[in-house]
Write a structure and sequence with these properties.
149 residues; Oxidized Rhodanese, domain 1; 7 helices; alpha/beta
Length: 149
């Protein structure tokens, strides 16, 4: 009888070890993400348009919103015509008041395209179906010689 109880204890330990080891074997170690990783992940989920496409869309007269997600100091130094400023850090908190129409076509831009990619991804997650990011951002727009305010 003593042998049975000892064997039962051994089996309990073996089963517990098996579960513990299998949990360790299936747990995948993840390395911390960098800002570039977040941008890359966002870009895989959104649509980007070129500055030429953005300019053509703006000039077409079609209803749209041009959203500058840079900081207010950056915006004051110059921005795309008719752009509204809503810094990326406040986007989730203020966008529904600034842009209540979730069907609106929104061209999102920042300085070079990183923040706008992240912001566009956030907008899509919030239900804004027609948000696109302008590749290259403000820098690409200015380099192309397009009009600014």
């Amino acid at each position: 009888m003593k042998r049975f109880h000892r064997m039962k204890g051994v089996w309990v330990i073996l089963v517990a070890l098996t579960f513990a080891l299998s949990a360790c074997a299936t747990t995948k170690a993840t390395k911390p993400m960098t800002a570039a990783d977040f941008v890359k992940e966002a870009k895989a989920k959104i649509k980007e348009i070129t500055v030429a496409e953005a300019k053509a869309k703006i000039e077409s007269g079609a209803p749209l919103v041009v959203l500058d997600v840079r900081e207010p100091k950056e915006y004051k130094k110059g921005h795309l015509p008719k752009a509204i400023n809503l810094p990326r850090g406040l986007l989730e908190f203020k966008v529904t008041k600034k842009i209540p129409n979730k069907d609106a076509y929104i061209i999102v831009y920042c300085k070079s395209g990183g923040r706008s990619s992240l912001a566009t991804n956030t907008l899509r997650q919030m239900g804004y179906k027609n948000a696109v990011s302008m590749a290259g951002g403000w820098k690409a727009w200015v380099k192309a010689g397009y009009p600014v305010e």
